[in-house]
Amino acid sequence: MSQDRGETKWFGIWDKDGSVRYFRNIENDYLDIFQKLRKGTIPETGNTGIKPDLRKAMIEFGKIRLKEELGEDRFVVKLVQALNSIDEIINLYYERASGFAIFTKDLQDANTMNELFEDIAEGESTFNPSAMHIIGNEGKRLIDTKKELERLLAESITRIMPNTSRLIGPNLASELLARAGSLQRLALSSASAIQLTGAEKALFQHLSKGTDPPKHGVIYKHSLVAGAPDGRTGKRARRLACKICITARADLRGNLLSDEIINGYIDNIQKP
C-alpha cells in the first residue's frame, strides 16, 4: 500500500492535510475487517481479488494511530513510571550506601537521605576517601534528579489536567492518569472505577474470598478522604470520585473550570 496522501485506504480516507477520516469502527469490527482483508473483498483494496499484505497493512495503520494517540498525557504516564523506578533505585542505593557512613571519623545523625549522602561524600575517612566521595555524590545526584523530574511532572500535569490538578493536587492527578494509561481513559471511567483505582487486589479478594469490599483506592491519599471522620471515608471517597469524573472530562474537552466551581466541589465533598 502506498503512502500517498489523499488516497482511499481500507481503514478510511487519508486526506492531503495528514488527517484520517475513518469509516469503520476499527476497535469493534477488527475481526471482520481482518477476514475481509485476507480474502481481498474490501472494496477499497480494489476488485482485483488480490489479497493485500495484512502485516504491512496493520503496521501502516498502527503507525498512524500511534502518532494520533501520543499526546502529552502519554508522556506524563511514562514520566510517572520513570519516577517510580527512580524511587526504587534510590531506596536500594540508600540501603547499600548507608553502611559507608560508619567509616567516617565524625559519624553524624542524618535526618534525611540527602544529609546522609552529604556526610558520606564530605566526611573524613581513612579508607579510600575518593570512593566515599563518589558514593555520596551519586546518592545526592539521584535525589536531585528525582526532584527535578517531579517539578517537570507537576508542570506537565497542571497544563494538561488543570481542573483535576486543582481539585486533588498534581501528585494524585498524575498517579490516577498513570494508572488509567491516558487522559481519555481516565475521563471515560466511571466514578466507581476511579474510586477503587489502586484497590484491585482488595476487590479481587472480596469477589473471590468474600472479604469486606474496599471503600477506596489511591484517592485515600487525598486529605479530604484520609482526614474524614470515622465512618465517612467511603462517603467522601465516592463524592471525590464523582468530582474527579467531572474535572477529568472537562480537562479532556479543554474546558477550564473556574476556581469558584472547584472550591464548590471541595465544599460539597466535606459536607456531612
Distance between the termini: 63 Å
What's the story with the biggest beta sheet? 3 strands, antiparallel
Order of helices and strands: EEEHHHHHHHHHHHHH
- Strand arrangement within the widest β-sheet reads 1-2-3
Share in β-strands: under 5%
Cα radius of gyration in angstroms: 26 Å
Query: Which fold does the CATH topology of the largest domain refer to?
Result: Serum Albumin, Chain A, Domain 1
Mean pLDDT: 80
Unreliable sequence segments: none
The number of E-state strands comes to 3
User: How many helix segments?
Assistant: 13
* Integer tally of domains: 3
In the CATH hierarchy, the architecture of the largest domain is Orthogonal Bundle
- Annotated CATH homologous superfamily of the largest domain: Nop domain
What report would you give on this structure?
The protein has 272 residues and is mainly α. It has three domains: 7-69, no CATH class; 72-154, Helix Hairpins (Orthogonal Bundle); 162-269, Serum Albumin, Chain A, Domain 1, CATH 1.10.246. Helix content is 63%, strand content 3%. The protein contains 13 helices and three strands. Helix 4 (113-122) packs antiparallel against helix 5 and helix 6 runs antiparallel to helix 12 (233-253). It starts with 6 loop residues before the first strand and ends with a helix. The model has no long low-confidence stretch (mean pLDDT 80).
Outline of this structure?
With 272 residues, this protein is mainly α. It is 63% helix and 3% strand.
